[in-house]
Write a structure and sequence with these properties.
With 156 residues, the protein is mainly alpha-helical. It has helices at 2-137, 142-155.
Length: 156
C-alpha cells in the first residue's frame, strides 16, 4: 500500500508541477519563442527588401552608367565636330592670308619691275645721248663711227 500511496503522491506532485509549469513557466517561454520567431521573420523580410533594393540600385547604377556613356559619346562627337570646323576655318583663313601675301608679292614685283624698266630707259637714254655727243664731236667717218659704237657696246 505504501507503493500505491507513493505512486499517487508522485502523480499528484507531477500533475501540480505540470499545471504550475503550464500556468507560470510555459507562457513566458512561448512568448519569448514567439517574439524570437517574429524577429526572425521580420529580419528575413528586411533581408528580402534589402535584396530587392540592391537589385533596383544595380539597375539604376547600370542605367546611370549607360546615360553617362551616351552623354560622353555625344560630347566627344560634338568636340570632334567643333575641331573639324575650327580646322576648316583655319585652312580658309590660311588660304586667304596666302592669297593676300601672294598678291602683295606680285604687286611688289611689278613695282620693282617698273622701277627697273624706268632705270634701264634712263640709262639707255643717257648712253644714247653720250654716244650721239661723241659722234657729233668727231667728224663723220664710217670707220670711226663703227669704233665708237663698239666702244659704247662695251660700256654697257
Amino acid at each position: 500500500m505504501y507503493l500505491n500511496a507513493t505512486l499517487l503522491a508522485q502523480i499528484a506532485v507531477f500533475i501540480i508541477l505540470a499545471l504550475f509549469t503550464m500556468k507560470f513557466v510555459w507562457p513566458p517561454i512561448v512568448k519569448a519563442l514567439d517574439e524570437r520567431a517574429a524577429k526572425i521573420s521580420e529580419g528575413l523580410a528586411e533581408a528580402e527588401r534589402g535584396q530587392q533594393s540592391l537589385v533596383l540600385s544595380a539597375r539604376h547604377a547600370a542605367e546611370t552608367m549607360r546615360e553617362g556613356k551616351e552623354k560622353a559619346a555625344e560630347v566627344i562627337a560634338q568636340a570632334e565636330n567643333r575641331a573639324g570646323q575650327i580646322i576648316e576655318k583655319a585652312k580658309a583663313d590660311a588660304r586667304l592670308e596666302a592669297e593676300k601675301v601672294i598678291a602683295s608679292a606680285k604687286a611688289e614685283i611689278e613695282q620693282e619691275e617698273a622701277r627697273m624698266r624706268e632705270s634701264l630707259r634712263e640709262r639707255v637714254a643717257d648712253l644714247a645721248v653720250a654716244g650721239a655727243e661723241k659722234i657729233l664731236r668727231r667728224e663723220v667717218d664710217a670707220r670711226v663711227h663703227a669704233d665708237m659704237l663698239s666702244a659704247i657696246k662695251l660700256d654697257l
